[in-house]
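FORM 7B: Structural annotation worksheet

SECTION A. Query
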Amino acid sequence: MKMQGAGNDYIYVNTLKHLIADPVRTSIRWSSSHGDRLRLALIGKSAKADFSMHIFNADGSEVMMCGNASRCIGKYVYDNKLTQKKAITQETLSGIKVLKLHTENELVEEVTVDMDLPLLANSRQINTPDGKMLAKTITVDGKEYKRTFVCM
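SECTION B. Predicted structure
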């Protein structure tokens, strides 16, 4: 199933029904005709949460977490009767996330995701190109701005 979340396109596969033996190769193959914005999102079982989520970019790399994909998965699992819960847990590479499903007429209208606290570049928990992207100054149209790299 193809879904979109805030401009990002995803192909979702319910691996409870359809096994994807090589998600890296599958992601690269399926994305090649759709550009680098298409991602493969796998919905699966979890021993720690209600569901698991694995997302692969067009180049086959796996991402830690994606809020937009999580919201789409919340809608998918509820609307397709995989759960009746309106608060579900989802296992990701960045930990367990809580999705709150807001329904109307037994269909999901909106999903909110608790993304946890952001990681800052100086926390040594994330990598940046120069390793020092905390509070750097940039100039745009003659005006200086301070920027900080934040990872959700």
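SECTION C. Observations
The mean pLDDT is 81. The chain has two helices and twelve strands.

SECTION D. Sign-off
Analyst initials: ____
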